[in-house]
Amino acid sequence: MKVAILGNGAIGNLLVLKCYQIKQDVGVFMRSQQHFTLTATDIGHQAHQINIDSLARASLSEFNLLIIPVKAYQVVNALKQLQTDLTPVQTIVLLHNGMGVIESAKALLPDNPIIAATTSHAAYKPDAQSVTETGLGVCHLGYLQHPGAIDSEQIHNILNRLLGPCTWHEKIEQALWDKLAINAAINPLTAIHRVNNGQLTELKYRADIESICAETVSVMTASGFHADKGELVEKVLSVANATATNYSSMYQDIAHHRLSEIAFINGYICQEAQKQGLDVPFNTELVNKINALA
After folding, report:
1. Can you list the domains of the chain with their CATH numbers?
2. pTM as predicted
3. Which residues form the Ketopantoate reductase C-terminal domain (predicted)?
4. pLDDT in tens, 191-206
């Protein structure tokens, strides 16, 4: 069983570290072929030197499992570029924040088993050749199409070892919404106010968190998903407290003048609200503020 990882973002590099630790055969695919040594520091503060030789796209068909841990806005273009190099028996894992790319992915790869995943494992990438594991988390996964395909038992085992503890869902959309709902509060607020996650537990941010959660819950319930405002507010505060010293991915993107995933988080809430005939002024304002900062 061979695992391929697309890109060398924070989570991509974390997965390389996990593969290294369990001695899993892995290949890394990047925009251009590169050779470098990745300095990967695990959660126990032990540094590992991992030689990376990124591979040519032509060899992608040799791998059983392709994990795509890139930004939401990069997923569709990545799949378009890789489309001709993939075979229908390869399983694809979409691992990104936000929602809004699933239908495009299914249309581009109609014959491949596709798994959607969301994780709370955390990593920080200070530069292109290093990564630090900053938090242990969990992973929720579910098939979007063609479940139980070839090698599925081995693939489940590998993903459980790389991203565990894992929970598998027959319908993954609820878990994706649950993660998005938390990100919709933490990510834009930390980026706008330039604070770490833990600072959001301060009382001065409570009204904003409650406003975001109230709008998100209204959209989720109208769309047929379970949501409760009180529960969501508590989850946001719990995650903020548990990751107190971390800086959200959106904070990092804005701080480094990179494109953010706001269109696939709060922007997705606005999009789905429009479908349901709902007004979400606070989420709309957050999208506008983040776009103005970009």
Report:
1. 3-170 (3.40.50.720), 174-293 (1.10.1040.10)
2. 0.93
3. 172-293
4. 999 999 999 999 999 9
